[in-house]
Amino acid sequence: MIRVVLADDQEMVRMGFAMILERADDIEVVAQCRDGVEALEAIRRERPDVALLDIRMPKLDGLAVNRQVAGQTRVVIVTTFDHDDYVDTALADGAVGFLLKDSGPDLLVSAIRAAASGDALISPELTVRLLQRTRAAGSSAPAVPGVADLSERELDVARLVARGRTNSEVAAELFISLGTVKTHLGSIQTKLGVRNRVEIAARMWESGQV
Prior knowledge:
This protein is of the alpha/beta class. It has helices at about 10-20, 35-45, 60-70, 85-90, 105-115, 125-135, 150-160, 165-175, 180-190, 195-205; strands at about 1-5, 25-35, 50-55, 75-80, 95-100, 120. Strands 2-1-3-4-5-6 form a six-stranded parallel beta sheet, sandwiched between helices. Helix 4 links the parallel strand 4 (about 75-80) and strand 5 (about 95-100).
């Protein structure tokens, strides 16, 4: 069971997220918090697998909470605001997910599961912008270790991941099964020496494959 602490200053949002998460058989919301201080206390008390944190909260915002707890629990930031600075700060401080509140129930559940399993998930519309900034910060097409070892099909999968596609969307576009996508992703991670799909995408942008 994935244990989750949920923090948002809007009661209706908290209730809505809790209902979505608790419909999943493998997720349990162990605490709901109205502000950052309550969230910090609940995380230290409950030691959840994942903390789902809003950014703009009273007393202590989600980014500040993330900085203090990212070493002990996996943090997914969820917010209405898609400011690039928020994304960069959250990820730099250890968050493993960043979602917009209108991302939908399926992506919310997927982000919690990804975080619990050591993976990372970012709203697709934010992923491309994040990786464009990564690419702009470096050279135009540096040699990235492992990319040359990818098969043509693995490159196809990796390029779609870099464009923010979900596993289901990759499967549909390439006319392959979801299981095959997951197999390819495992092989890609091994060859590139990365831990998750966000890092796969970063390698693709850095290498000029996207």
